[in-house]
Amino acid sequence: MTAAKCALVVDDIVSNRVIAQTMLERLGWSVLTAVDGRAALDTLATTHVDLVLLDISMPGMSGIEVCQSIRANPALADIPVIAYTAHAQHEDRRNFIASGFDEVLIKPINREALTVAVAAIARQRGLGSDLDSGSG
After folding, report:
1. HEC readout, 22-45
2. In this structure, what DSSP letter does residue 76 have?
3. What's the pTM value of the predicted model, to 2 decimals?
4. 71 near 40, Cβ under 8 Å?
5. Are 105 and 97 in contact (CB under 8 A)?
6. Computed from CA positions of residues 5, 10, 116, 94, in that sequence, does the dihedral angle turn out positive or negative?
7. How far apart are CA 107 and CA 79, in angstroms?
8. In this structure, are strands 81-85 and 51-55 parallel, antiparallel, or unpaired?
């Protein structure tokens, strides 16, 4: 078995962070959390992360601004970033993907959708096939 991969969950609402963290941990990920975009970028500057789950609507920096900062930094640009939001119409989803997100999930976060998205990204990025087997 390979070592746990590390995800960063970024959301200004604590209950959303806890729910996402719990779901990812059940999938075998170690999880860090950040309360806003600035804290997320600070964490990314000092800690290796394999995946970012990023709320779109946050005070200060929006999730889109954070994603664009990640993509603009050569040291971070390859990290998969999943947007999650309560506001995602078809056009919004297209805009989020165009802004650099790898996937878009709808709040409230659904464990099955998160599992599928993370497994697909893990396979695409070669993060290990054991990541999509975490049921429980």
Report:
1. HHHHHCCCEEEEECCHHHHHHHHH
2. T
3. 0.89
4. no
5. no
6. negative
7. 22
8. parallel
Arithmetic mean of pLDDT, 72-84: 96
Q: Which amino acid is at 121?
A: I
β pairing state of 51-55 and 30-34: unpaired
Handedness of CA 9, 12, 16, 19 (dihedral sign): positive
Tokens coding 101: 């997100």
What integer pLDDT is reported at residue 127 of this predicted model? 66
Superfamily of domain 18-28+37-133: Response regulator (3.40.50.2300)
Tokens of 89: 């119409």
In the chain, where the domains are located: 18-28+37-133
* Total residue count of the chain as it appears in this document: 136
Q: How many CB atoms lie within 10 A of CB 29?
A: 23
